[in-house]
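yo

u said u wanted the structure for the complex thing, so here. seqs first:
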Amino acid sequence: MKPHLKKLMAATCAALFVLAATAAETVKVGVLHSLSGTMAISETSLKDVLLFTFDEVNKAGGVKVSGKSYLIEPVVVDPASNWPLFAEKAKQLLEQDKVAVVFGCWTSVSRKSVLPVFEKDNGLLFYPVQYEGEELSKNIFYTAEAVNQQAIPAVDYMLADGKKKFYLLGSDYVYPRTTNKILKKYLQAKGIPDSDIEEIYTPFGHTDYQTIVAAIKKFAAGGKATVISTLNGDTNVPFFKEFANAGLTSENCPVVSFSISEDEFRGLPAKDLVGHLGCWTYFMSIKSPENTKFVKDFQTWLKEPKVTGAEYKVSGIDAKGRVTCSPMNLSRMGVYLWKQAVEQAGTFEVDKVRSALVGQKFKGPAGEVTMQDNHHLVNNVFIGETLATGQFKVVKQLGAVPGEPFSDKFLPKVTASN
Amino acid sequence: MANRSLAILGLFAEFLACASEHRTNLVTAILAEDPAQQLEIIRKLADTSDPIVPQVLAAWRGGTIYIFETNDAKVPFYLDAQLDSDGKAKGIRVIDGEPLFEGDKPMLFLASDLNSADTSSKLRKGIKTTLDLFAIGNPDPKIRRDAVIKLGQEQNPENISYFESRLQREKTGELRKTLVEAIATTQIASEDAAIRFAAIERLREMRSINALSFLEQLHKDAKAAPAKFGEPTVDATRQAIKEIEAYIARGNLVGTAFRGLSLAAVLLVAALGLAITFGLMGVINMAHGELIMVGAYTAYVVQNIFKDAFGAAGTGFDSYFIAALACSFVSAGLVGLVLERGIIRFLYRRPLESLLATWGVSLVLQQVFRHTFGAANVQVSSPSWLSGSFVLQDVLFAYNRIFVIGFAVFIVLLTYWLLTRTPLGLQIRAVMQNRSMASALGVRTDRVNMITFAFGSGLAGMAGACLSQIGNVGPSLGQNYIVDCFMVVVLGGVGNLVGTVSASFGIGVTDQILQPWLGAVLGKITVLAAIILFLQWRPAGLFVTRTRGLEG
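structre next:
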């Protein structure tokens, strides 16, 4: 009898649930992150945080457009770290699923690959990962850190710290090369001679850093040297192991890494990274009521992941040892900025949402951000020192910095004021 | 008797008074509004020998000094090391080392709720200098050395007295040298020509690499203003720079040789297993990389077991790596055994199918590990005896690299001994040369195949444990090494151990010689192109194994 009763109740609940789900209107929102292949390590976390945010929004009543509530229905696709597939999946999201907005992409090459699709179909994309700039599409909103919100403040910090020699080390692809090109110009404008700037690239998956570390050791022999690293993901492991073994430390030659956030830290040898620096617009360790709530709610959500009111079933989430990081925070804030803009515009129509987005403000975990008309955020920049726990300790707050994608706009200005 | 104890008491009281004075100074420094005043107090604190000073300064710099504000006063404090069950700790006042009380109960704080006392980057640097001055007397010679080098680079004449007083007490030869170097580096900025000249001469004699950039700067300045510095300074710096640079060039040569050798050892360790499964047995084993991965993950698992049993440091934990090597040999060997019994033995005469099958197995293994351990890389921390390096004549020798070289020699000798000095080796060689003849003579070829493949896989597993000390451990670990492994075996000549050894040596050294000139990317391309050209010229590789088979 009893099992019967249970079944009956479950069935009633399910029926009610379906009823509730069908009763409220839904709006389709696309998630375009690689869930397999090489980029899956980083991008899966962004998918997770997006689903979490959709759940947050839906629980609070969804997106309210002219008196009606729309619950977010996620459409999650897997472009599998394959750049052409990104464009195909974007096309599918826009033309077949007719999503109102897409949150996605990590690498610049994937963004460049979907850009023509979004422009042709007049879609809306939110891009959350620090990047090299020199791009502006009317269909993309870049919540990401631009070069002048990450690389330039970090270099300024090192200059103020009395560093005179800069070793620019990166993986061999577009982001490090463009960033280092800008940094080199910037350093030259700051009076650092060419002989004190070294620019070196290594291939993806490079494991032998002996020669480079020996060169850095020599470079740093006179003191006042620093390494600016745009090394990608797991090449950091052999690099930092070699670096530490050579007797180099954050004391005699600090490394500033632009691609290591709390999330990447999970696979790195913590003790070899202690004291080295990071520069982001958010750290998990930031103390604010908004951040405490974000971290706590996210970690609770991971244990029982679901998107309230949506048909989408969340699966395959690893709840162990999860952290939050800047790209995750920027993904989440993108959702809220979009929601506010839609509610202000009173429609999901892309053109109207776009104009409503400019000037939109949101008080996030690391302080208030504002969307500018160049589609980049005014955001608070922090410099942090890595701790053995895989967290950053904020050592400097740079306050609100308006993001500027084009280096020629901020480079000459700096030279002039110098 | 009474007199003596009174005297001791007096001394103690004096010590207390003195200590409290330092504490008062610390509190004044922390609470001062004017950064210049803060810096001045901090600098003066360097003259004390009270251990509380560096302790509080380090905490202040690290952001673990907090300020307790009451209506009429600000009280700086730090947290007691002892945490209660909620992670809260007592607040210890800087002024007297006593806990903060509320009524008669000590107040408890949670570190994450507190805001630390402000520091600017200039102030942090000032604190650092004072801490460095303390560190000159640190019991750990490595910390002493780093502090002296750093202070020397400041070229602040005020530091010389600290260096000299330490020099009188310092017994370690290397550190005495570092101190002399630091004094000389500071003195080359001196206004006094005689002192400057003597310092340049000393640095030249010491062939000081650390001082090179300072000498270069001085040389440039002196050339720009010969009237101020005088002709002798220009000549002396030029000569010193020349000699130091020649010394660096010599060091580079040794360094490159060592790095080449160590890269060669890495390649050899990774490829030796393949030299057996592919070289000797002729199985195009695309799953070789994943067998390496199995070994690396075994090291990770063993590490975690040891961490649970002994904690994350100490001799107990440090010995995990020895166990890991043995375990990874066994685990990868077992995987190899299953692979051979399950798939490969049906495909001995069909190399193309074995290529496809093993490739499939490699994909399956990758996914299995991705599912079990997660897509992200895992952390394998090095035991303390494999971390760090020693410096000889300014050339760096990292312990983990030396270990890999030694390990490579060991497994090559082991394999050589097994193949040439044991009955099993004789059987292996017989089966590889002529399977049917060996079988006709009563060798159980099936069993020999199985053991050989398992042994080759076991070697790959040990390689994995070894490589976990220098690189990543993740599901795609095998992919990173498989190309290099085949490159080594093919270049060396299939079926030939000597070939494998010389090929890895050749590739390693060539790569390290080219890298400083061409960079990592172009260096690798050049090596690959050279190998292709070489194989055009000698398709069978460096060493050709002559067999009596018809295809030979």
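Strands of chain B lie at 65-69, 74-83, 88-93, 101-102, 105-106, 108-110, 389-392, 395-398. Residues 231-280 of chain B form the longest helix (50 residues).
cya
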